[in-house]
Protein backbone atom coordinates (compact mmCIF):
# COMPACT_ATOMS: atom_id res chain seq x y z
CA UNK A 1 0.00 0.00 0.00
CA UNK A 2 2.37 2.75 1.20
CA UNK A 3 5.50 2.87 -0.94
CA UNK A 4 8.67 2.13 1.05
CA UNK A 5 11.92 3.93 0.17
CA UNK A 6 15.36 3.11 1.54
CA UNK A 7 17.45 6.27 1.95
CA UNK A 8 20.64 4.24 1.50
CA UNK A 9 19.76 3.17 -2.04
CA UNK A 10 21.44 4.94 -4.97
CA UNK A 11 18.23 6.24 -6.59
CA UNK A 12 16.52 7.19 -3.31
CA UNK A 13 16.53 10.96 -3.89
CA UNK A 14 15.20 10.76 -7.45
CA UNK A 15 12.44 8.32 -6.40
CA UNK A 16 11.43 10.59 -3.53
CA UNK A 17 11.39 13.67 -5.77
CA UNK A 18 9.27 11.82 -8.37
CA UNK A 19 6.68 10.81 -5.77
CA UNK A 20 6.49 14.30 -4.26
CA UNK A 21 6.27 15.97 -7.69
CA UNK A 22 3.54 13.60 -8.88
CA UNK A 23 1.34 14.50 -5.94
CA UNK A 24 2.11 18.23 -6.26
CA UNK A 25 1.06 18.23 -9.92
CA UNK A 26 -2.23 16.64 -8.87
CA UNK A 27 -2.82 19.52 -6.47
CA UNK A 28 -1.98 22.21 -9.06
CA UNK A 29 -4.05 20.90 -12.00
CA UNK A 30 -7.26 22.39 -10.59
CA UNK A 31 -6.41 26.02 -11.39
CA UNK A 32 -7.94 26.38 -14.89
CA UNK A 33 -11.40 25.06 -13.99
CA UNK A 34 -11.37 27.25 -10.87
CA UNK A 35 -10.71 30.39 -12.95
CA UNK A 36 -13.67 29.58 -15.23
CA UNK A 37 -16.02 29.05 -12.27
CA UNK A 38 -14.97 32.34 -10.63
CA UNK A 39 -15.46 34.21 -13.89
CA UNK A 40 -18.93 32.67 -14.33
CA UNK A 41 -19.98 33.72 -10.81
CA UNK A 42 -18.75 37.29 -11.35
CA UNK A 43 -20.72 37.50 -14.60
CA UNK A 44 -23.91 35.57 -13.76
CA UNK A 45 -24.15 35.73 -9.96
CA UNK A 46 -26.81 33.63 -8.22
CA UNK A 47 -27.85 31.89 -11.45
CA UNK A 48 -24.33 30.46 -11.87
CA UNK A 49 -24.07 29.73 -8.14
CA UNK A 50 -27.23 27.59 -8.17
CA UNK A 51 -26.02 25.84 -11.33
CA UNK A 52 -22.80 24.70 -9.63
CA UNK A 53 -24.61 23.75 -6.43
CA UNK A 54 -26.96 21.49 -8.39
CA UNK A 55 -24.05 19.97 -10.30
CA UNK A 56 -21.63 19.34 -7.45
CA UNK A 57 -23.73 19.19 -4.27
CA UNK A 58 -27.19 18.17 -5.54
CA UNK A 59 -28.52 21.30 -3.87
CA UNK A 60 -30.97 23.89 -5.18
CA UNK A 61 -31.48 26.00 -2.02
CA UNK A 62 -28.53 28.25 -1.25
CA UNK A 63 -30.16 30.09 1.67
CA UNK A 64 -31.56 27.62 4.23
CA UNK A 65 -34.50 28.90 6.28
CA UNK A 66 -34.29 29.33 10.04
CA UNK A 67 -36.92 26.58 10.36
CA UNK A 68 -34.76 24.15 8.35
CA UNK A 69 -31.73 24.97 10.48
CA UNK A 70 -33.57 24.55 13.79
CA UNK A 71 -35.18 21.27 12.66
CA UNK A 72 -31.77 19.81 11.79
CA UNK A 73 -30.25 21.00 15.08
CA UNK A 74 -33.16 19.44 17.02
CA UNK A 75 -32.14 16.00 15.73
CA UNK A 76 -28.56 16.34 16.94
CA UNK A 77 -27.41 13.91 19.64
CA UNK A 78 -27.18 15.57 23.08
CA UNK A 79 -23.68 14.12 23.58
CA UNK A 80 -22.49 15.86 20.40
CA UNK A 81 -24.03 19.14 21.58
CA UNK A 82 -22.28 18.78 24.93
CA UNK A 83 -18.95 18.08 23.20
CA UNK A 84 -19.36 21.22 21.06
CA UNK A 85 -20.26 23.25 24.17
CA UNK A 86 -17.09 22.11 25.94
CA UNK A 87 -14.95 22.82 22.88
CA UNK A 88 -16.53 26.27 22.49
CA UNK A 89 -15.68 27.24 26.07
CA UNK A 90 -12.09 26.00 25.82
CA UNK A 91 -11.42 27.72 22.49
CA UNK A 92 -13.09 30.94 23.66
CA UNK A 93 -10.94 31.08 26.79
CA UNK A 94 -7.73 30.57 24.79
CA UNK A 95 -8.45 33.24 22.17
CA UNK A 96 -9.75 35.74 24.73
CA UNK A 97 -6.22 35.73 26.19
CA UNK A 98 -4.82 36.69 22.76
CA UNK A 99 -6.83 39.88 22.49
CA UNK A 100 -4.68 42.99 22.10
CA UNK A 101 -5.19 46.11 24.17
CA UNK A 102 -5.39 49.58 22.67
CA UNK A 103 -2.64 52.02 23.65
CA UNK A 104 -3.45 55.61 24.57
CA UNK A 105 -1.40 58.07 26.59
CA UNK A 106 -0.02 61.63 26.71
CA UNK A 107 3.70 62.31 26.73
CA UNK A 108 5.55 65.08 28.61
CA UNK A 109 4.83 67.56 25.83
CA UNK A 110 1.09 66.86 26.07
CA UNK A 111 1.02 64.95 22.76
CA UNK A 112 -1.65 62.27 22.70
CA UNK A 113 -0.35 58.98 21.27
CA UNK A 114 -2.68 56.12 20.32
CA UNK A 115 -2.56 52.68 18.79
CA UNK A 116 -5.94 51.14 18.02
CA UNK A 117 -6.98 47.62 17.03
CA UNK A 118 -10.07 47.68 14.82
CA UNK A 119 -12.01 44.55 13.79
CA UNK A 120 -12.90 43.84 10.18
CA UNK A 121 -16.48 44.64 9.17
CA UNK A 122 -17.13 41.18 7.72
CA UNK A 123 -15.60 37.72 7.46
CA UNK A 124 -16.73 34.58 5.63
CA UNK A 125 -15.87 31.22 7.14
CA UNK A 126 -15.60 28.27 4.77
CA UNK A 127 -16.62 25.04 6.49
CA UNK A 128 -16.26 21.79 4.48
CA UNK A 129 -19.47 19.76 4.23
CA UNK A 130 -20.03 17.99 0.92
CA UNK A 131 -18.04 14.86 1.85
CA UNK A 132 -17.15 15.45 5.51
CA UNK A 133 -18.20 18.00 8.12
CA UNK A 134 -16.16 19.60 10.89
CA UNK A 135 -17.95 21.65 13.58
CA UNK A 136 -14.43 22.36 14.87
CA UNK A 137 -13.81 24.45 11.72
CA UNK A 138 -16.71 26.69 12.75
CA UNK A 139 -15.48 27.11 16.32
CA UNK A 140 -11.82 27.69 15.50
CA UNK A 141 -12.59 30.32 12.86
CA UNK A 142 -15.65 32.06 14.27
CA UNK A 143 -14.63 32.42 17.92
CA UNK A 144 -11.56 34.66 17.23
CA UNK A 145 -13.81 36.83 15.02
CA UNK A 146 -16.41 37.04 17.81
CA UNK A 147 -13.79 38.08 20.35
CA UNK A 148 -12.27 40.61 17.94
CA UNK A 149 -15.69 42.20 17.45
CA UNK A 150 -16.30 41.42 13.77
CA UNK A 151 -19.82 42.70 13.06
CA UNK A 152 -20.80 40.30 10.26
CA UNK A 153 -19.71 36.65 10.32
CA UNK A 154 -20.90 34.58 7.36
CA UNK A 155 -20.72 30.79 7.12
CA UNK A 156 -20.49 29.07 3.75
CA UNK A 157 -21.01 25.34 4.12
CA UNK A 158 -21.92 22.94 1.31
CA UNK A 159 -24.50 20.31 2.15
CA UNK A 160 -24.41 16.62 1.33
CA UNK A 161 -27.23 15.92 -1.14
CA UNK A 162 -28.73 19.29 -0.25
CA UNK A 163 -28.62 18.86 3.54
CA UNK A 164 -26.23 20.58 5.90
CA UNK A 165 -24.67 18.87 8.89
CA UNK A 166 -26.60 19.42 12.19
CA UNK A 167 -23.39 19.60 14.27
CA UNK A 168 -21.98 22.32 12.01
CA UNK A 169 -25.25 24.26 12.23
CA UNK A 170 -25.31 23.91 16.03
CA UNK A 171 -21.73 25.22 16.25
CA UNK A 172 -22.74 28.15 14.03
CA UNK A 173 -25.69 28.99 16.32
CA UNK A 174 -23.36 28.73 19.30
CA UNK A 175 -21.09 31.29 17.62
CA UNK A 176 -24.08 33.60 16.92
CA UNK A 177 -23.71 33.24 13.14
CA UNK A 178 -26.97 34.41 11.57
CA UNK A 179 -25.91 34.44 7.92
CA UNK A 180 -25.57 30.87 6.63
CA UNK A 181 -25.34 29.77 2.99
CA UNK A 182 -25.55 26.20 1.76
CA UNK A 183 -22.86 26.58 -0.90
CA UNK A 184 -19.38 25.20 -1.45
CA UNK A 185 -16.35 24.95 -3.72
CA UNK A 186 -14.83 27.71 -5.87
CA UNK A 187 -18.28 29.14 -6.67
CA UNK A 188 -18.90 29.79 -2.94
CA UNK A 189 -15.52 31.52 -2.60
CA UNK A 190 -16.30 33.71 -5.62
CA UNK A 191 -19.78 34.55 -4.30
CA UNK A 192 -18.53 35.93 -0.97
CA UNK A 193 -15.49 37.57 -2.59
CA UNK A 194 -17.45 39.54 -5.21
CA UNK A 195 -21.05 39.37 -4.01
CA UNK A 196 -24.30 38.38 -5.73
CA UNK A 197 -27.90 39.65 -5.35
CA UNK A 198 -28.46 37.20 -2.48
CA UNK A 199 -25.00 37.37 -0.90
CA UNK A 200 -23.19 40.53 0.13
CA UNK A 201 -19.42 40.42 -0.33
CA UNK A 202 -17.05 40.22 2.65
CA UNK A 203 -13.69 41.71 3.64
CA UNK A 204 -11.94 38.40 4.30
CA UNK A 205 -12.38 34.64 3.71
CA UNK A 206 -10.94 32.04 6.09
CA UNK A 207 -11.28 28.32 6.70
CA UNK A 208 -10.11 24.99 5.27
CA UNK A 209 -11.18 23.34 2.03
CA UNK A 210 -10.09 20.95 -0.70
CA UNK A 211 -7.63 21.73 -3.48
CA UNK A 212 -10.30 23.55 -5.52
CA UNK A 213 -11.23 25.79 -2.59
CA UNK A 214 -7.56 26.55 -1.89
CA UNK A 215 -7.01 27.41 -5.57
CA UNK A 216 -10.08 29.69 -5.55
CA UNK A 217 -8.84 31.56 -2.48
CA UNK A 218 -5.52 32.19 -4.21
CA UNK A 219 -7.37 33.54 -7.27
CA UNK A 220 -9.53 36.02 -5.33
CA UNK A 221 -6.71 37.17 -3.03
CA UNK A 222 -6.11 40.87 -3.55
CA UNK A 223 -9.78 41.57 -4.19
CA UNK A 224 -10.53 40.10 -0.76
CA UNK A 225 -8.35 39.10 2.19
CA UNK A 226 -7.51 35.48 3.00
CA UNK A 227 -5.39 33.80 5.70
CA UNK A 228 -1.63 34.19 5.65
CA UNK A 229 -1.51 30.72 4.10
CA UNK A 230 -3.91 28.71 1.94
CA UNK A 231 -4.53 25.29 3.39
CA UNK A 232 -4.79 22.69 0.66
CA UNK A 233 -4.95 18.90 1.03
CA UNK A 234 -3.50 17.66 4.33
CA UNK A 235 0.16 16.77 4.74
CA UNK A 236 1.79 15.01 7.67
CA UNK A 237 5.26 13.61 8.36
CA UNK A 238 5.71 11.31 11.36
CA UNK A 239 9.16 10.41 12.71
CA UNK A 240 9.24 7.39 15.01
CA UNK A 241 11.53 4.71 16.45
CA UNK A 242 11.31 1.23 17.98
CA UNK A 243 9.65 2.64 21.11
CA UNK A 244 6.72 4.15 19.16
CA UNK A 245 3.23 2.66 19.33
CA UNK A 246 2.31 1.25 15.85
CA UNK A 247 -1.42 1.63 16.58
CA UNK A 248 -1.04 5.35 17.33
CA UNK A 249 1.22 5.95 14.32
CA UNK A 250 -1.24 4.23 11.97
CA UNK A 251 -4.11 6.23 13.47
CA UNK A 252 -2.25 9.53 12.94
CA UNK A 253 -1.51 8.64 9.31
CA UNK A 254 -5.11 7.63 8.59
CA UNK A 255 -6.42 10.71 10.41
CA UNK A 256 -4.83 12.89 7.72
CA UNK A 257 -5.32 10.51 4.78
CA UNK A 258 -9.10 10.43 5.23
CA UNK A 259 -9.36 14.19 4.57
CA UNK A 260 -8.69 14.03 0.84
CA UNK A 261 -7.41 11.60 -1.84
CA UNK A 262 -4.64 14.17 -2.46
CA UNK A 263 -3.54 14.18 1.19
CA UNK A 264 0.05 13.02 1.70
CA UNK A 265 1.22 11.01 4.70
CA UNK A 266 4.92 10.25 5.21
CA UNK A 267 6.44 7.99 7.87
CA UNK A 268 10.17 8.15 8.64
CA UNK A 269 11.83 5.44 10.75
CA UNK A 270 15.09 3.50 11.10
CA UNK A 271 13.12 0.48 12.35
CA UNK A 272 11.84 -1.82 9.56
CA UNK A 273 9.91 -3.94 12.03
CA UNK A 274 7.98 -0.92 13.21
CA UNK A 275 7.11 0.00 9.61
CA UNK A 276 5.71 -3.50 9.04
CA UNK A 277 3.67 -3.28 12.26
CA UNK A 278 2.29 0.10 11.17
CA UNK A 279 1.28 -1.36 7.79
CA UNK A 280 -0.65 -4.15 9.54
CA UNK A 281 -2.35 -1.59 11.80
CA UNK A 282 -3.31 0.56 8.80
CA UNK A 283 -5.08 -2.38 7.13
CA UNK A 284 -6.86 -3.17 10.38
CA UNK A 285 -7.99 0.40 11.10
CA UNK A 286 -9.07 1.18 7.53
CA UNK A 287 -11.80 -1.45 7.88
CA UNK A 288 -13.28 0.45 10.83
CA UNK A 289 -13.60 4.01 9.44
CA UNK A 290 -16.47 5.40 7.31
CA UNK A 291 -14.15 7.25 4.88
CA UNK A 292 -11.87 4.28 4.22
CA UNK A 293 -12.04 4.60 0.41
CA UNK A 294 -10.65 8.16 0.55
CA UNK A 295 -7.96 7.27 3.11
CA UNK A 296 -6.96 4.17 1.13
CA UNK A 297 -6.61 6.11 -2.13
CA UNK A 298 -4.51 8.77 -0.39
CA UNK A 299 -2.19 6.19 1.14
CA UNK A 300 -1.84 4.16 -2.07
CA UNK A 301 -1.25 7.18 -4.33
CA UNK A 302 0.73 9.46 -2.05
CA UNK A 303 1.79 7.57 1.08
CA UNK A 304 5.53 7.03 1.63
Helix content: 40-55%
Largest sheet: 5 strands, parallel
Shape: globular
Average of pLDDT: 92
Structural category is alpha/beta
The low-confidence runs, each spanning 5 or more residues with pLDDT under 50, are none
Strand order of the largest sheet: 5-4-3-6-7
End-to-end separation in angstroms reads 9 Å
Number of helices: 11
SSE run = HHHHEEEHEHEHEHEEHEHH
Number of beta-strand segments: 9
Radius of gyration: 22 Å
- The portion of residues forming beta strands comes to 5-15%
Tell me what the structure shows:
- There is one protein chain.
- With 304 residues, the protein is α/β, with parallel strands linked by helices.
- It contains 11 helices and 9 strands.
- It has helices spanning 12-28, 31-57, 66-74, 78-96, 135-148, 166-174, 185-194, 211-220, 246-257, 272-286, 292-302; strands at 103-106, 112-115, 122-126, 152-156, 179-181, 204-206, 225-226, 235-240, 264-269.
- The strands form 3 sheets. The protein has a 5-stranded parallel β-sheet, with helices on both faces. A two-stranded antiparallel sheet has the order 1-2.
- β3, α5 and β4 form a beta-alpha-beta unit.
- α2 (31-57) crosses α8, α4 runs parallel beside α5 and α7 (185-194) packs parallel to α8 (211-220).
- The termini are close together.
